[in-house]
Amino acid sequence: MTAPATVALTVNDRPYEKQVDPRTTLADFLRQHLGLTGTHVGCEHGACGACTVLLDGQSVRACLMFAVQASGHAVTTVEGLANPDGSLSPLQSAFREHHGLQCGFCTPGMLMTLAELLRDNPAATEAEVRDTLSGNLCRCTGYAGIVAAALDVLARLAPEAKDR
Amino acid sequence: MKPAPFAYHAPSSLAAAVDLLAQNENAKILAGGQSLVPMMNFRLAMPDHLIDLNPVTELDRLTVRTDSIEIGAMTRQRRMEFSNELRQACPIIGEALQHVGHRQTRNRGTIGGSLAHADPSAELPTVVLALDGVIEIRGPRGTRSMPMAEFALGFMTTALEPDEIMSAVTLPRWQGPHGYAFVEFARRLGDFAVAAAAVMMALDAKGTVTRVAVALAGVGPVQSRLTAVEEALRGHRIEPALIDSAAALAAEGDANEDIHASADYRRHLAQVLTARGLATAARRAQTQMKAPA
């Protein structure tokens, strides 16, 4: 056991401060120390993307960084996506409408990856959506519904961008 | 918790990081962590000390000059991918980055981490080799620099001494009209390259190759410059038959064999990707020459 390190950060706009073993990954920290089990842990070596969260607004693999490295930063998890009143965000609703949920295991990572893409590139094409999703594995082979959900939200976000 | 226990250090300067590396046995430098942390999670790497360069802001810099580009070791791949200035100055880097992992890993991954990790299939070392990049290294004995061709020694092995840290890379810029191409074969976008080729090419008004650089990844234990291919092209008029005969030379030599591809298949890919890269670079060079200055 090495000396504990302090992690002081905000998760979904709420501040937390905890003492952790430095080897605690951000994914384990979110789940085990903060009880935010929406972030899923899959392969734990950066291949599957299930643990994707936003760090200062950018998608990252929570299994490939240590909690202590997130100190001083802002993390957004899937728990932070819904509207303040608890209703689903447009992206989450679209996943439900287009049968993009499948077994649900990869869903949080898919949502966080797409949340970043939709924010940064509201004119994204289907090819860009598919390229971006290549970093998230769905073992139900359910990409069709997930892509449809993303395209649906994109169409509503920027109808003028689609008419180019 | 998958990694073995370690003591965590977060120095705020490069000098402090060099001191920490000198003072601690079995220490590892943590850059973006997109290769090291998987190795730690598999316990293939079990450092007693982890020295995190992420707080060292002096290493996060991207300077585009008329004759060269200087990139600090901790500059994230994301910053390189989305820099308009870099895209205009050296578009092959952006083309290669599209094959480097995924958006989520490029958001964390750094150029220094990729070069120091020295994976034979990695894209950034291939581009830096094709561009004759120079690596800057800091250690307790001061600063030194060396060409990329001498920096990467073999399979995941560099010329870094145990107490040294890679601090930056300088890429000389190609002047005048020229073409470029980065082509890769992988099982899915973002996977490790089975093979990849980086090509830079300049032509004169008659279509004669005046300057060319070709680097290959994924085939041997380390990225290699295809000097035989370059020699076969230099001074000759670019045309499909020349591309085919020069690219055939890429298939000569030893190749790795693993679960993804036999050595023969890798040699075949080397030839095919080199030919495609040369054709694309030649086409772009010709377009560049026609473009109004």
From TrEMBL, chain A:
PROSITE patterns associated with the record: 2FE2S_FER_1, 2FE2S_FER_2
SUPFAM superfamilies: 2Fe-2S ferredoxin-like (SSF54292), CO dehydrogenase ISP C-domain like (SSF47741)
Source species of the chain: Hypericibacter adhaerens
Keywords (A to Z) from UniProt: 2Fe-2S, Iron, Iron-sulfur, Metal-binding, Oxidoreductase
Domain 2Fe-2S ferredoxin-type: 5-81
One Pfam family cited in the UniProt record for this chain: Fer2_2
Superkingdom classification of source: Bacteria
Entry annotated with the keyword Oxidoreductase: yes
Entry-linked CDD domains: fer2
Protein name: (2Fe-2S)-binding protein
InterPro entries: 2Fe-2S-bd, 2Fe-2S-bd_dom_sf, 2Fe-2S_ferredoxin-like_sf, 2Fe-2S_ferredoxin-type, 2Fe2S_fd_BS, Beta-grasp_dom_sf, Diverse_Oxidoreductases
UniProtKB/TrEMBL annotation, chain B:
GO molecular function, one term: FAD binding
PROSITE patterns: FAD_PCMH
Domain FAD-binding PCMH-type: 1-176
Highest taxon listed in the record's lineage: Bacteria
Pfam families: CO_deh_flav_C, FAD_binding_5
SMART domains: CO_deh_flav_C (SM01092)
Gene3D superfamilies: 3.30.465.10, CO dehydrogenase flavoprotein, C-terminal domain, Uridine Diphospho-n-acetylenolpyruvylglucosamine Reductase, domain 2
Keywords tagged on the record: FAD, Flavoprotein, Oxidoreductase
Name listed for the protein in its UniProt record: Molybdopterin dehydrogenase
Organism taxonomic ancestry: Bacteria, Pseudomonadati, Pseudomonadota, Alphaproteobacteria, Rhodospirillales
